[in-house]
Amino acid sequence: MKYKHILWDWNGTLFDDVVLCADIMNNILRRRNMGKISLEDYKTVFDFPVRNYYEAVGFSNLDDKLFHDLSVEFIEEYEARKLDFGLNKDALEILQKINSAGIEQSVLSAYSQHTLEEIVEHFGISKYFVRLAGLDNIYAASKIENGKLLIKKLGLNSGEALMIGDTLHDKEVADEIGADSVLLSTGHQSKERLIKAAVPVIDNLLELEKFIF
Ligand SMILES: [Mg+2]
Question: How many domains does the chain have?
Fold first, then answer.
């Protein structure tokens, strides 16, 4: 086995919430007569820190107060609707396969800690993870600091973990914490953007088998 540990991103990687997130942003824009974005536009502009993404969709004078209010507005609708959405279609199968091979797994997410724990439990997959690492706020700025802490807690050395995510930030985090990375093209950023990261880009989670086994 090439890796001791698999680090999973949650949103857009294990959890299929891309359509939900684009839809919520369209509701936010519509309430302000700011037009709308297509799913393709969404995947072209979504970014970390999320604050930059809000600016990219048209909030050019984004101060702390407006960013906070938009974050609250977003997360309220997200929480109300999230259970209408499900796991990525191959998530369960690949989690089981990795688990059966004796490789440990954790989640490293920009989602807030308690909601992350809650939703992972909701889908009955907590048993697959050694640790669930979310943020202590709703602003989704960066996973780098949490990633460093997680790697330390897990006692992993450079090259022993594989990070699986759906954004360029996941690759950035992996580089910072000494993990390899693979990016999934069906998440929050377009394949055209992900390819620029010069790491493997896959179109479904089962393709991971060739990188892990
Ligand atoms: Mg993600």
Answer: 2
Which residues sit with Cβ closer than 5 angstroms to ligand 1, an ion? Answer: 9, 11-12, 166
4 alpha carbon – ligand 1 mean position (Å): 22
Q: Give the distance, in angstroms, between the CA of residue 7 and the centroid of all CA atoms in the same chain.
A: 11
By the 8 A CB rule, do 37 and 105 touch? no
31-74 pLDDT, tens digit per residue, is 999 999 999 999 999 999 999 999 999 999 999 999 999 999 99
Same domain, yes or no, for 80 and 113?
no
Q: How far apart (Å, rounded) are the C-alpha atoms in residues 118 and 15? A: 13
The whole model's pTM is what?
0.96
Residues 12 and 23 in one domain: no
Place of tokens 């950023």: 189
